[in-house]
Design a protein that fits this description.
Blueprint (H helix, E strand, L loop, with lengths): L1 H23 L2 H22 L17 H14 L30 E3 L15 H11 L7 H8 L10 H5 L7 H11 L2 E6 L4 H9 L4 E10 L5 E14 L4 E5 L9 E4 H9 L5 E6 L3 H8 L5 H18 L4 H15 L3 H16 L12 H4 L2 H7 L4 H14 L7 H13 L3 H14 L4 H9 L5
Antiparallel strand pairs: 1-4, 2-7, 3-4, 3-7, 4-5, 5-6
Helix pairs in contact: 4-5, 11-12, 12-13, 12-15, 13-15, 15-16, 16-17, 17-18, 18-19
Length: 452
């Protein structure tokens, strides 16, 4: 009898496991636990394969055979398939004058905009973009919410068996162009983004009643428990010179409403995204916004201004900060379609990255999650193997699962250029599993006569 009882107890173990798995996949339970399970999985992977140890080494080799000369003609066509607001693409020409010509009344010492509705990103995953854009839209009276934004900008796989939050979980980042396009294509409001912003410009916009979203980097204890560099959007709604900082709404922090961000720290974090800023505004006030922007209203001027700022930073900064300065120089050249110059600048940045002073902080291994300029530069310089190598490092060594649709797309394009069409198709389809109906991947497949 005792032996029979012991046997029955042993059978309880697999039964309990089966029940646990069954309960986990019940929608109410799975929705609450899926992100925690994903976090645990990520921590295990990162423990054995620290992502900050991954280093990309550019080869600098171009593929200028007769075949690739022909293929490069196709590459120029692919440029037209890039999402419309992903990078500014002014026509080549003489550099514009960089001295701002704005004449305006002196700015007040403090402005704090009223009517701000704070929106956090809590209980969601990779929701910084949707949360900040929702705050910017609600400031002008929009009635939507963060989930309405996310369903468009990070729709995920489109799997009807999963709810939209779970579908969008693998999408680690929403690009600035996706936020701008959401406003311009899905609301009655307007939005624009520019590189090369500066403190006075942000103050001038705020003083005139226009809050600003900036993209910045910062060091924070992340979900793996490490102090690492992350990218973040920050809704800026005021400033106070007496206290020495901007008033910001941080969707990530608790509490995150009406925080003071020291000017120096704000600018230091902003530098790592080439001083990019976005403004959302009512359509009937566009002329007012453009007047406030002054020379920044011209995208070409703004990118040239960003290039100048990057060069100044290269000459004045040292240590790890030089990586961001050289990276910004590359990004500014890409925005002007100066791809060889951009590739050379990115080469310098990645060389500095390899020599990063670890004792001063972990490497910013998430950089390519947020900014894809190097893919443009290397691809349009016919450095296809560097595109593939950079994408491999990004997808296989800096992230727990290869779910960055931009890296998949560019690796696919490079595979196609070197003659590996099947690998290209596999990457295009993989990109669509992260971002369903994503136009560049859909177009890439259709160009090959395939259905998405």
């Amino acid at each position: 009898m005792k032996r029979f009882t012991k046997t029955n107890k042993f059978w309880l173990i697999p039964i309990a496991l089966i029940l646990a798995v069954g309960i986990y996949f019940l929608p109410p339970v799975h929705d609450r636990l899926a992100t925690r399970v994903d976090l645990l999985r990520t921590r295990v992977i990162y423990f054995f394969n620290p992502p900050n140890e991954a280093v990309f080494q550019p080869s600098g080799e171009t593929a200028l055979t007769i075949e690739t000369v022909i293929a490069t003609t196709r590459a120029e066509y692919l440029l037209t398939l890039t999402p419309k607001a992903s990078l500014t693409t002014p026509a080549p020409g003489a550099a514009p004058a960089l001295t701002p010509t704005i004449t305006s009344v002196p700015l007040p010492a403090s402005v704090i905009l009223p009517g701000v509705t704070y929106v956090d990103q809590h209980n969601r995953w990779n929701y910084c973009g949707p949360a900040n854009l929702t705050m910017a839209l609600k400031f002008w009276g929009w009635k939507g919410d963060r989930d309405e934004v996310a369903k468009v900008v990070k729709p995920g796989s489109g799997d009807p068996k999963k709810n939209f939050i779970e579908q969008g979980l693998p999408d680690k980042n929403v690009m600035p162009y996706e936020l701008v396009d959401f406003v311009n294509d899905n609301t009655e409001y307007r939005a624009l983004s520019r590189y090369g912003g500066e403190e006075t410009l942000i103050k001038r916009l705020i003083a005139a009643g226009f809050p600003v979203i900036v993209e910045k980097g910062y060091y924070e204890r992340d979900y793996n428990g490490k102090i690492d560099w992350l990218g973040h959007y920050l809704f800026t709604t005021g400033y106070d010179d007496a206290r020495g900082g901007f008033i910001v709404q941080d969707a990530y922090l608790k509490p995150g409403k009406d925080l003071l961000s020291n000017y120096a720290e704000y600018l230091d974090g902003w530098r790592s995204f080439n001083y990019l800023f976005m403004v959302v505004y009512p359509a009937d006030r566009e002329a007012e916004v453009l007047e406030l922007l002054g020379p920044w209203a011209d995208e070409k001027w703004a990118t040239q201004r960003a290039l100048e700022l990057a060069q100044n930073d290269i000459e004045s900064l040292h240590g790890n900060d030089l990586f961001f300065a050289w990276f910004n120089k590359g990004t500014s050249h890409v925005a002007q379609q100066q791809y060889v110059d951009a590739a050379n600048a990115y080469d310098q940045a990645f060389t500095l990255y390899a020599g990063w002073k670890i004792d001063q902080g972990n490497r910013p291994f998430r950089m390519m999650w947020y900014q894809t300029g190097p893919y443009f530069a290397y691809f349009y310089s016919a450095r296809y193997q560097d595109v593939i190598s950079l994408a491999n490092t990004t997808l296989n060594e800096t992230i727990s699962t290869p779910t960055l649709e931009e890296s998949l797309l560019w690796r696919g394009r490079a595979y196609y250029m070197v003659g590996n069409t099947q690998a290209a198709v596999d990457d295009y389809r993989a990109a669509l599993r992260v971002h369903v109906n994503w136009a560049p991947a859909v177009q890439a497949l259709q160009d090959l006569g395939l259905q998405p």
